[in-house]
Design brief:
Length: 379
């Protein structure tokens, strides 16, 4: 039987807010629109107060996507906006209110909106959840998590670790769907051209650490590993904005004598430039100390760039060891050994080729299919 046309209200990050979370919400909106559904995106007037945001800017200056209806209506620190948005959703009665949850900071805002929206007896709140327990802990985490998670009808989780943590708060329906590929960054660039655009010597070999630099992501572990791996003609690119102490990592690089080995691009990489980094790099290294899942692995799949991940959280669920990359222990020794192995023989070429087939597991269609299945279970 053909499904009736659903009304979907997406609440969460979207243009002009930058980063992978906004890409996820916009990508799901496009998939639902392609299915003929009515889709409205409600995003923030303010996402983080400046005092709580460690980066330089939360937004981009590029034009809003012309194919999506995005409205800026919600402030995470203004309860009046929570009430207005919740009441609007209650009156509009969409079939699905789809939320993205990644930090307890969002719980008071999202929990209030969800409770008000559900009051019409028709709308179902579905959450695509990145994290339950945050990477940086605060005393209020459990209280805030309880408030939001218990206002949701069903969850789509992307790693078993998150599923386990979720069960400590709620018994609501929950289904697994892996993180889809980030296709918005375009196609691979010829390596010599990518190096030219980045000001790199194409005769060198490059490993890449990519993304916002936070302590839990293990850049210090990678630097120690690189010191042990160190080879002539191999360099490490660190590309991303510091959300941790820059001085601490610069001192670590100097202490290890890696000044000539590490190429530091310490800024938020615009979407249009991401393809250059993943095309210039032989492999990407995610030396995380803790994790649930990572959007960076899905950028690797998009560009078929082999990847090394540590055996934490759900990373090993996404990266089959020895097929598209290596899974190693979250230690300098483990990462250094994986680097040595990935540069042996034709390993990089074999992994890149295997990614072409392996990436078929990760699609926005499959994610939205899971959301629809979940809606059918909780409606």
């Amino acid at each position: 039987m053909e499904r009736r046309r659903l009304k979907v209200a997406i609440v969460g990050p979207a243009h002009p807010y930058r980063g992978g979370l906004a890409v996820i919400m916009e990508s799901m909106a496009r998939e639902f629109r392609a299915r003929g559904y009515d889709v409205d995106i409600l995003t923030f007037t303010l996402q983080y107060p400046a005092l709580l945001f460690p980066g330089k800017s939360q937004t981009v200056t590029t034009p809003a996507p012309a194919d999506l209806a995005i409205r800026r209506v919600l402030s995470t620190i203004n309860p009046l906006s929570w009430w207005r948005v919740g009441r609007e959703l209650r009156r509009a009665a969409p079939d699905i209110v789809l939320m993205k949850y990644w930090t307890p900071f969002m719980a008071p805002c999202f929990g209030s909106v969800a409770r008000l929206a559900r009051g019409n007896g028709h709308s179902r709140v579905i959450c695509q959840i990145d994290n339950v327990e945050p990477h940086e802990h605060h005393l209020s985490d459990a209280l805030f998590n309880r408030y939001f998670l218990r206002s949701v009808d069903g969850f789509v989780y992307m790693s078993e670790q998150v599923h386990g943590e979720l069960r400590a708060y709620t018994s609501a329906e929950a289904l697994f769907a892996p993180h889809p590929i980030f296709e918005n960054f375009g196609h691979r660039v010829e390596r010599t051209e990518a190096c030219r655009r980045l000001g790199l010597d194409a005769k060198q070999r490059y490993a890449l650490f990519f993304g916002l630099i936070r302590d839990y992501k293990g850049l210090d572990t990678l630097l120690d590993a690189w010191s042990a791996f160190r080879r002539e003609g191999h360099k490490l690119i660190v590309a991303g904005e510091f959300y941790a102490s820059r001085e601490k990592y610069i001192a670590h690089i100097e202490r290890l004598g890696l000044g000539e080995d590490v190429i530091l691009h310490d800024f938020f990489v615009p979407d249009a430039d991401v393809k250059n980094y993943f095309s210039a790099a032989d492999c990407v290294v995610l030396p995380y100390k803790t994790a649930t899942q990572s959007g960076v692995t899905q950028i690797c799949y998009n560009f078929c760039t082999p990847v090394i991940v540590t055996n934490v959280g759900g990373l090993a669920e996404i990266v089959p060891d020895g097929r598209v990359g290596y899974v190693c222990e979250p230690t300098a020794e483990g990462v250094a050994d994986a680097l040595a192995r990935i540069y042996e023989g034709d390993t990089l070429a074999r992994f890149a080729e295997a990614m072409v087939e392996e990436r078929k597991r990760f699609s926005w269609a499959a994610m939205c299919d899971t959301i629809e299945e979940l809606y059918d279970r909780v409606k």
